[in-house]
Every structure is written in structure tokens, then in C-alpha cells.
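At this stage, I wrote out one protein's amino acid sequence and its C-alpha cells, and that material follows here:
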Amino acid sequence: MVDRRAAEPYAPGSTQSLPLEPLTRNRATPTAPDAHEQGVTRRPVRHFSLLGIVWDDPEAELHGRVQVRTRAADTGTWSGWQDVETHNSDHAADRGTPESTSGRVRGATAPLWVGDSDGVELRVRSQPEKAEAASAHHGTDARNLAAAPPLPYGLRLELVDPGDDAPPPGASADGPRTADLAGQTSTATEASIATEASIATEASAATEASVVNADLAPLDATEIPALNSAETEQEFLALNAGELTEQQRARPYVGPRPRIVTRRGWGANEGLRERGFRYTKKVKAAFVHHTASGNNYRCSQVPSLIRSIYRYHVKSMGWRDIGYNFVIDKCGKIYEGRAGGVARPVLGAHTLGFNSNSMGIAVLGSYGAKKPSSAAVKAIARLTAWKLGLYGMNPRGKTYLKSAGSNLHRKGKKVRLNVISGHRDGFKTSCPGRKLYGKLGSARSKAARYQGR
């Protein structure tokens, strides 16, 4: 099979955006399209590795089932139908913040990693919320379909190509969003010839993202090295000289710093994100998530997977940067997420209602039915022991966070939470999956031991 990318100009990642179309006719009015079932008919497309569905109103919810099948680029084989996780509104910036009110934000499903693909077929069917889990695509009867709410307006299928690496100086930050091979026009921006000013801007953004970690690693480092307990304590005391109590100086209770792959290490295109950083006051809690993007990835593919999620969050969903502060893969490797400095209290967009004074850790994969690896659970413990320790927090303890408003806690309520919590503790959601949520007790105990408690 011919690799079509070989004939295309260099693209530091790209997104194809395909509008969904009605797949059936209205049962009551056969000449009218059905508002409850839409999709994309089977077709060839440019190469992509991750997909998701977006829609216009970020407050609207998609109540229904989303299924997709894709064609592997290397073999030409079509996959079976796969489900896409529809509930994703709980991963977002808090309401009323500049990030949520930018006018760019869209509603979206969770992303699904499918690997290098060049064909796609999609179907979306509206269902009453209570019937979603039990109903199969062809098992919803006419009465349930009639009772189901209409699908959100402006549904589009986003097909994300992560690109091969970070863009060279002067390459377009966006990459092409062009028509697919069947001639379907997508909302697109074409790569432009970079001016000296744009080259300088992109270089400045990359430097900006690296400088904030300069106390921990050399400029442009691809990873922040691990330190042992004694080295971590020395670094902690040096960085916080004059701000610690006598008790903190005598016993810091900060876990050894784990190795962390930087944004440069996973090939972040710094020209995609919004410039500058936003911070909260401190880090009192860690919320653990799963990305719900499936478990069919190799650890060697993780940089591409993170670049894809980053592009999906920014270009498709309209966020200022990737939402999570840290990402962990199933092999236990830790990656820097949202830019701003791994040791700093960077404001994320991970737990709607509780992004302030917290951090978000996402484990790559889906953990409703599948157990997380012991390596991933250990990485959660190592990361939280270090990062929470920098702010004097006990991983086995409790803390209070003020809710900014969620479907579980009203705005302004002070909520008592575990210092290491699951996403579902702050928002009514299945995240981080039943199996991963069940491992948080073990992560808390391990993290406390790493801190020497």
C-alpha cells in the first residue's frame, strides 16, 4: 500500500473535521431526516491516529451511543465497531474562567486512539440516558428512540494526526485541515509560509515552556531526572529557603522526585497552545483520571498519543492547552502535561468545579473493566508523594476545596476530599473507571511511605 503522507508537504500534525450527516429518515415523516441518528459513511481519509466527536454548545450533552470503525493504514483491514466514550463535559475548565468563556470551547466526547488509519465509518444514535448502557446499536426500539433527546447541534468527527515530532522552526503550528480523499470539505486552515516574526514567536513559546523548569533541568531538556530522597530534600530546602517553618525544615515530608518526560520530550508543538501560563495558589489535592481513549496502545506510541490528545484539547475542543497537569502511561512513565512548570501550581482543566488548588493526573487508557498496571499505580504514588509534598500535603490525609460548581457539589460549597481523590469524588462521572478508582487506596499508602510517613 502506498503511503500517501510521503507525497504530502511536512505537517506537524493535522486535524480533519468532517460534519455528521443524517443516516436515516424520520419515522413519522419519511421525507425528513432523522434528528436522532447521524454519522459518516465509510470513506477513505488522510492518515490519522485518534478521533473524537465535537459539537457547538459546550453545555449540551450527547445522550446516546457513538460507534466507529477504522481502516488500518498498513494492512487495509477494517476494525470491528468500537464505542467512543460520550461523557466528557466533566473534564473542563471551571465555569466563568477566561478559558471557559473564550468563545472557542466546544462540547466533545472522549478521544479514542485507533493507531495509524486511513479510512473511517461512524454512527451516532440518540438514546434515553438510562438506556444507553444496556442498549445495543440495533436494539433500541421505536418508542425509546422517539423519547430520546435530539443530538447536539453541529456534530463533527475530528480525525487527528499527531505528526512525527515537534515542528521545525518556521513550520505552521496548526498544520493543514484539508478536504478528505472523497472530496468532503472540512473546516480547514492551510499551512502558511512562516515569516521571521512567526519563527521567533514559535521559538519563544518553546523557550517559555522550558524556562519554567530551569530549576529542575537544563533548558530544552527532554526529561527531568529522578532524585533520591536526600537530593530531593536538599532541592526542596534550597528552592523554598525563607518560606518554611522550623518543623518543615526539620522534616520536609517530600517524596523523592520521579523522572518526568518534559513537553519537549514528547514533542509538544508549543505554537498550538495559548501563550503564557495561569496558576492557582497551591496544590492541596490530586485528582486521578483515565483518558477513556482505549488500551490499544504501545508504550513506544505514547508521545504520539499525548500529542494527539493535546491537539484534540486545543484545536478541536478549544482549550488553551492540554487539560491535565500530568499524564502516566501503562508502563509507569510520567509526562509533563499542561505547560507552566512541573513543580508549580499550574491551573488545569481536568475536574470541572475543582481545578483551583489541585492538580490533574491522567492515566492513559480505559479502566472501567480493565485493571490498571501496577507500574501505573506506583507512578501515581511516586508523583503525588513528590508534588503534594512540595506543598506540605499528606497523601493519606483529607483536605477542603471550595467548589466552583459541578453536578455533584454546588458552587461555593467547601467539600472535604481525600488529598488523592478520583475524578468521581468531585463530579458525578464514571472517571477514572471502577478498576482504577479501586486502586487509589493503595496509591495513597505508597505515596505516604515515599514521603517517610
User: Anything to note?
Assistant: DSSP finds eight helices and 17 strands in the chain. Residues 1-11, 131-143, 176-195 have pLDDT under 50 and may be disordered. The CA atoms of residues 37 and 125 lie 4 Å apart. The first helix runs from residue 142 to 147.
